[in-house]
Amino acid sequence: QGEKIDIIQWSPDAASFIVNALAPAEVQKVVLDEDNQRIEVVVPDDQLSLAIGRRGQNVRLASQLTGWVIDILTEAEESERRQTEFIERSTMFTESLDVEETIGQLLVAEGFSRLEEVAFVALNEIAMIEGFDDEIAEELQARAVAALAQRDADFDEARKSLGVVDDIAAIEGIIPEMLVVLGNAGIKSLDDLGDLASDELTDSEEGILKEFDLGEEKANKIIMAARAHWFDDEEDEPAVVEDESDETPVVEDESEVDASDDSDVVAE
């Protein structure tokens, strides 16, 4: 009936298949997030509308075919975002580690993006940075560990003031920062958390914990851990057993038994 059919070359490699699905747009770069089935695609500035398609049809169909969430950026947008990230991360290291701006910038340039990475990476990975040595690396790691401890203590104090219960804090996979976000969203008890569906935590647009890249599997584990007490409560309920017997138990009189026993004794 005059319908157009697009034929897409299949590939076992997810990135290649998505690039093929977005043709004829030219893709300059792809970044895969396999844990969350998400891919970032960078195209030339003049190819954006071609990649997205009319009313987003191209990218929507490519997403349906591949099962991946696809984010499309122009080269200019990616460059601006990377520059913003560089400044934000450099500032974070400079302030958290109480170091000069140059050191913060060097850490970011070498691929460090979080305090946890500085605190727990192998010491030589920091020491090998140009201008650093073992002594500087040890000092940076010590400061990172101290900064994390203080940050977590601040988050813990904040979640308590919000009324988030200790039982949620004890759930594996939940970090102190998440507790504050949950509390601000009104999730303060195990029942509040257990009533949620995984997408209410992870949805890229409206998920409560969207900034933490949880993934559906981790979100489900957290929710099921919050629901565990529901089943414990059921097991703790005492079973009610009805006594259908109307008979009154007969209690034998021990004195009569003793008397009867005495009558059987024959004096020699």
Helices and strands, with pairings:
Blueprint: H1 14-21, E1 29-33, E2 38-43, H2 48-52, H3 57-66, E3 69-74, H4 75-96, H5 101-109, H6 115-120, H7 123-127, H8 134-162, H9 166-169, H10 176-184, H11 190-194, H12 198-202, H13 216-236, H14 254-263
Parallel strand pairs: 2-3
Antiparallel strand pairs: 1-2
Helix pairs in contact: 1-3, 4-5, 8-10
Structure description:
The chain has three domains: 14-74, K homology (KH) domain (GMP Synthetase, Chain A, domain 3, 2-Layer Sandwich), CATH 3.30.300; 97-161, DNA polymerase, domain 1; 163-235, Orthogonal Bundle (DNA polymerase, domain 1). It is 55% helix and 6% strand. The chain has 14 helices and three strands. It has helices spanning 14-21, 48-52, 57-66, 75-96, 101-109, 115-120, 123-127, 134-162, 166-169, 176-184, 190-194, 198-202, 216-236, 254-263, and strands at 29-33, 38-43, 69-74. A three-stranded mixed β-sheet has the order 1-2-3. A hairpin with a 4-residue loop joins strand 1 and strand 2. Residues 259-268 have low confidence and may be disordered.
List the keywords.
about 270 residues; GMP Synthetase, Chain A, domain 3; 3 strands; DNA polymerase, domain 1; mainly alpha; 14 helices; 3 domains; three-stranded mixed beta sheet
Based on DSSP secondary structure assignment, what is the total number of beta strands?
3
Q: Beta-sheet strand percentage?
A: 5-15%
Largest sheet: 3 strands, mixed
Q: Give me the secondary-structure category.
A: mainly alpha
H/E element order: HEEHHEHHHHHHHHHHH
Helical content band: 55-70%
Task: Could you tell me the CATH topology label of the largest domain.
Answer: DNA polymerase, domain 1
